[in-house]
Amino acid sequence: MWLHILILLFANPPRMMAASNTLCPAGCSCSSETVECTNMGLVRAPASIPRHVRVLNMDDNSLYDLESISFRWFPYLQQLSLQRNKIERIDEHSFAQIDSLRRLYLTQNNIGVVSPRAFRRLLRLRHLYLGWNSISHLHSDTFRHLSRLKIVHLNNNNICTITEGLFAGLSNLESLTLSHNCLSELPDGTFRDLSSLHTLLLHNNNLKYIPHGAFRGLQSLTSLNLSNNSLANITANIFEDLPSVQVLELRNNRINYIHPDTFGAAPNLTYLYLDFNRLKQPPVFGHQHPGLRFLSLTGNEVEEIPDVSFRNAPNVHTLLLGRNKLGRVPTESLSVMTKLVVLNLSENPIMELREHSFQGLENLRLLSLRDCEIRTVSSEAFNGLGQIMGIFLNGNRIAKLEQGTFSNMPFIFSVNLNGNFLRHVENGAFGNHSSLRRLFLQNNRLQRVPKRSLGMMPSLKDLYLDYNPIRSIGPSSFVHLPNLRILGLRSCNLSRVHDTAFEGLGKLRQLDLRGNNLRNLPSTTFTNMSSDLVVELDQNPWTCDCGMLGFHQWLNNVQRFYREIVCVFPQRLQGALLSKLDSRSLNCSGDFSLLPVTVRTEDLFHNPDYRGVDDELTTGTVSSMVTEKTTNN
């Protein structure tokens, strides 16, 4: 008999699995060791949860009383998630019977009271998430005996004071989050037992002063965030107990002074964020910091940079000085930063770029001078930038570009001059670059396509001339740009386009002629161009008469297009779709020999108004440029 039963068991495993699924509570989702009962409006735990469950998720319900949940039936439970419920308190017996628990998620409840003995039986707990609650006080015994804890989140509560001894014994803790509370002080020795801590987040509190010894014991800490506090003076010994710190964030404080010895005890400092403080000068590094790679001073009140500022930080590769009060490029101070790759000087009241403004920065790849007040640019301003790949001058007041301004840049990839006052671009201003791929000239005052000024650019792919007062485009205006793929001529007040205007652009994929004053186009305008060409022609005052017959035939060969061409003139056809008209509607009679149309546009891309490139400059931008450059060579 027993042999017969065993044969049945092994012969029909799917049937037995199906039977086990009957233990899954109604409305829940169950797998072999996981039960998901989320977003069900539960006020108590459902019955018949399988005893062998290891992961139990009851997020997004209305649970409020943990005493109503009997965890004694789940001896194997390792992960419990009760996020976004209505739990108000954690009592002594709430989790007393699940001593196998490793991870506990209680984020976004209404917890205001936590018993000192709430977690006393959770000796195997590794991760504890209590963020986004209403906790104002934690007893010193709260985490006692939880020596295996690695991650604790207490962010977004009402904790104004850290009880002495709260973190005692947590020698394995690696990450502690106390951000978005109301902490006003850090008593000496608060973190002294956290010898394994790597990350400490204290941002968005009310800290005004960091006393000596506040970070004692944190010899393993690598990342410290003190942003969005009220710190004013940074003393010499504030970070002396942080020999391993690599990332230090002090954004959005009230810092107006940093002692030269402040970072001396942090020899491994790599990333330093001092954005949006009240510094009138960068910090002077009184000690050697060969490991410092990233320094951000955006949004301060820096008016000048002493020559000694960066002498002890020669290996910085990213320096962000945007939104300060610099009246000129600090050439002398920057010249010692020979490893600099990214330099952001945007939104400073810099009025001119003199010759050799960036002397010594031979490794610079990205330079941003966006939204300054630059009026004049010397033809030798960028001399020496042999590795430069991107220059951003958008949003200035530059009216003229001299010959050779952007020459001798063998690796230049992108130049952005969007939103200037450009009226005149001298011949050869951009040199004859074999590497330039993107040129942004929109929103200027150019009255014609700067054909000669552009020179020979065999690699140029994107050219934006939108929003310039260009009234006509002459023959072969882009013949020296054989690899152009995107050409923007939107809202230029164009009224005439020569039938060979786009000659030589056999690789063009997107042409934007929207919002001009075009009434008709020659039938041969788009012949000998790619069958993948996308042409956007709407928002023009099209005159639908016999002169449009050839163009009308071209339209009939377009399989798909972005918007219909709408007739504006004559009045009798106002609002009519050109593609729906015939030769009689266009007042044409007799025989017409029309040139065969080879253009066939595909799906038109929805391209916004070419606003240029992202303001944020990172080394990732350099990587993407190098990748695209390599891919297209």
UniProtKB/TrEMBL annotation:
The gene is LOC118420965. Residues 540-589 form the LRRCT domain. It holds the Pfam family LRR_8. This is Leucine-rich repeat-containing protein 15-like. It comes from Branchiostoma floridae. Residues 1-18 form the signal peptide. InterPro entries: Cys-rich_flank_reg_C, Dev_Immune_Receptor, Leu-rich_rpt, Leu-rich_rpt_typical-subtyp, LRR_dom_sf. GO terms for biological process: nervous system development. Keywords: Developmental protein, Disulfide bond, Leucine-rich repeat, Repeat, Secreted, Signal. One of its GO terms (cellular component) is extracellular region. Gene3D superfamilies: Ribonuclease Inhibitor (3.80.10.10). It is found in: Secreted. It comes from the Eukaryota. PANTHER family: PROTEIN ARTICHOKE-LIKE, SLIT RELATED LEUCINE-RICH REPEAT NEURONAL PROTEIN.
